[in-house]
Amino acid sequence: MAFVDDSREVSAYAGGARVEDYLALLKPRVMSLVVFVALVGMLVAPDGINPFIGLIAIVCIAIGAGASGALNMWYDSDIDAIMSRTQNRPIPAGRMARNEALAFGLVLSIFSVTLLGLATNWVAGGFLAFTIFFYVVVYTMWLKRSTPQNIVIGGAAGAFPPMVGWAAVTGTLSWESFALFLIIFLWTPPHFWALALYKQGDYGAAGVPMMPNVAGERSTRRQIFAYSIALAVASLLPNMLGFSSWIYGVVALVSGASFIWLCLRLLRAPDSVSMRRTARTVFTFSLSYLFVLFLALFVDFLAMRLGVL
């Protein structure tokens, strides 16, 4: 058994990428959140969609998100090799050549955009293409290595999927879909800056100008707290615009207050050890926070469909 395992490792490092390496390129954990928020955007859109067409649309959005991840890993393979949390990705670990990842990402991009346009409408297909372009070119190639505002502006790419889902149903964009975009857009900076606070050594070594490395920890903590307040307010927009019920409103209020409280604790952390520990807590909570908000919207949809509300 040991001999077989060793030989597989040697062949993999000699350039034989395995299926799991291609799956890793898709960033499946990120993809799962993208798919979920896109699905919610699709479900809360008016008029509804044929379930089979809806399934195709979700698969296309998932593939498009995976394509973005593959192209991101292709371009960032040099800094991925430096940072501890990314060193085992397929390219820096030596299990895949860069041109393989590039070809894989381009093929998936073209396939997902074309199929989504043909299956639903070209507003959705075009918006998916723009989302991939924004993430790969605007964020990865331009902003990420040039400005501490990289994650603020570039975060728009991660906020587009609910709008793509909405457009797949309606063929248009709306204030309701923009509200879903704004929630994710305002969530992105505190989420990633919390990560950067306890991983700033990695970003510094890789030369990525994340906010803590450029503006300092104190300024970053103040900005995280400010964004948490803006996010809590924006999370109430679905109620204000009338496409969610009291169920979502209560969840948004409680979750938003909890996030603000955690970010206030981070702001007031008395020393670097406490700051890093609280930053990790904020980062972990932020993952569940976004999921819970969109889950509440999903529950609203089910409750209205079942006539409970």
What is the number of helical segments per DSSP (H or I, 4+ residues)?
A: 17
Largest sheet: none
Output mean pLDDT.
Answer: 90
Distance between the termini: 59 Å
The CATH superfamily of the largest domain appears as: UbiA prenyltransferase
Q: Based on CA inertia axes, which overall geometry fits?
A: flat
- The H-and-E topology, N to C, reads as HHHHHHHHHHHHHHHHH
How many independent structural domains?
2
Query: What kind of oligomer do you see?
Result: single chain
Number of strands: 0
Nearest-angstrom radius of gyration? 20 Å
CATH class group of the largest domain: Mainly Alpha
Membrane topology: Multi-pass membrane protein
Main location: membrane
Function: Converts heme B (protoheme IX) to heme O by substitution of the vinyl group on carbon 2 of heme B porphyrin ring with a hydroxyethyl farnesyl side group.
Pfam family, one: UbiA
